[in-house]
């Protein structure tokens, strides 16, 4: 406890770090206030309450509840995430985007410009669908045509404003802004979920002991998720010695850290998108949706749904890892820089060696990822409240863990740069890839 107080004092004494943390809290406060501002012309008492499960529940969780409140920030940053994923896939498949990515700062600016334009298009399309799906006619107090046009403009402007807040957090605050906004939206639902779960337990469904056990299990799952996010397999790389004049270069051993979970949360997102297809089909055929295989796929706690979900996650993990990790490129860059893996010939043998290791660590990583993804369903089957069960795993847990680790790493960097002790008693927080659009 004494060390914690000392660390907090050190953080407060660093003026730049203190300013960044206060700026971050201010921008997040603006975001949370905006999430409660309802669209003009909408009567909140007549809004649909269907955004609690399925893909609507997922979007509502990422938006911090503003999706179900018909807020001006109802769509949040999800259109930007969708646009970023599309652009990321294009940089892998389209040569012109690959060329822009390799052009440095100018190419990055061009890609960001295209991403913003695509975000506006996606937001406008999603805004129309949102108004038709989530805002019933009896909740609209003005002319329907005027309401649709004005609301599409407001929702699009709201998403762009949230993007601006995220960029300001990145520039003037601490951590990755977009990731922190998503995490805050997820965490904002935790207090209410805890109160509901505690109320359920105190009313006879297990008592306070069961509630404490659930929280201990949740803590263990969080620690397990941290191990997966931080887990790496280090490949030693030896660089040859070069003598230029009277100076020696190279001759050192470094490591290539290959992550156990290189795909991040993308496999879960892709698998969820496919698993929502049966629910969509069932909405068009209500009579067939209540029985047979279609009914099992619409039940999030069924064995059929969870087994299929886990298999899809494992497959998508291998697919996304194969796309994002290029052993041939790594081996070529290593060879150009005079590096080699001890005991392995440079060139193609090195690429095959790296590919073999990636395949070996991807399988346990994909199994662990699938287990985390189905833990909320297991928790619901065990009697946990559905709102609280979402924190036991899935996309929300991985995003929260990743963002917190990334933010703590940045705070620790500020402390160590000014010769203070880090946040950890022994060792430093392991470096990791920030949870940006490539990971959400």
From TrEMBL:
One BP term from GO: protein targeting
PROSITE patterns reported in the protein's UniProt record: SECY_1 (PS00755), SECY_2 (PS00756)
Statement: the UniProt record of this protein carries the keyword Metal-binding: no
Source superkingdom: Bacteria
Annotated compartments: Cell inner membrane; Membrane
Cross-referenced SUPFAM superfamilies: Preprotein translocase SecY subunit
Main subcellular localisation: membrane
GO cellular component: plasma membrane
Function comment: The central subunit of the protein translocation channel SecYEG. Consists of two halves formed by TMs 1-5 and 6-10. These two domains form a lateral gate at the front which open onto the bilayer between TMs 2 and 7, and are clamped together by SecE at the back. The channel is closed by both a pore ring composed of hydrophobic SecY resides and a short helix (helix 2A) on the extracellular side of the membrane which forms a plug. The plug probably moves laterally to allow the channel to open. The ring and the pore may move independently.
Protein name: Protein translocase subunit SecY
The keyword Protease appears for this protein: no
Gene3D superfamilies: SecY subunit domain
Transmembrane segments annotated in the record for this chain: 21-39, 70-94, 114-133, 145-166, 173-192, 204-229, 263-285, 305-326, 361-382, 388-408
